[in-house]
Amino acid sequence: MNFVDWSLNDKPLPSGSRFTPSCDFGRVSLEISSARDSDAGVYVCRASNALGQACSSGTLNVAVDNDGVASSTLHPAGMQGLQNVQVSFSCY
């Protein structure tokens, strides 16, 4: 049985529609829509199957200005453009 688990700062990944894990053709990824400052931290992907297990991690930094707006996700097209901004991690 194949198993993939994601965590953020050593805690289970928050549930919600902004986090979309996927696994296609052996590539595991996590998409985060509309990244917030609370999404910053160390993401860990743990994958296991009958042959063993593997772990990969990455750090996400979110730049937030004084108004609490994630400036790294600002888009010239305004809110319509923001709907298309996503953060993606891959676990190989």
Word description of this protein:
The chain has 92 residues and is mainly beta. The protein contains one helix and seven strands; from the N terminus they run E-E-E-E-E-E-H-E. The chain has a single domain, classed as Sandwich (Immunoglobulin-like). 4% of the residues lie in helices and 49% in strands. Strand 3 (19-24) and strand 4 form a beta hairpin. It is elongated and about 50 Å long.
Mean pLDDT across residues: 75
In DSSP terms (H or I, runs of 4 or more residues), the helix count works out at 1
The CATH architecture would be Sandwich
Helix content: under 10%
What's the Cα radius of gyration? 15 Å
Percent strand equals over 45%
Number of strands: 7
CATH class: Mainly Beta
What is the ordering of alpha helices and beta strands?
EEEEEEHE
Content-based structural category: mainly beta
Sheet with the most strands: spatial strand order: 2-1-5-6
Task: Describe the structure using short key phrases.
92 residues, Immunoglobulin-like, 4-stranded antiparallel beta sheet
Question: How would you sum up this structure in a few lines?
Answer:
The protein has 92 residues and is mostly beta strands. It is 4% helix and 49% strand.
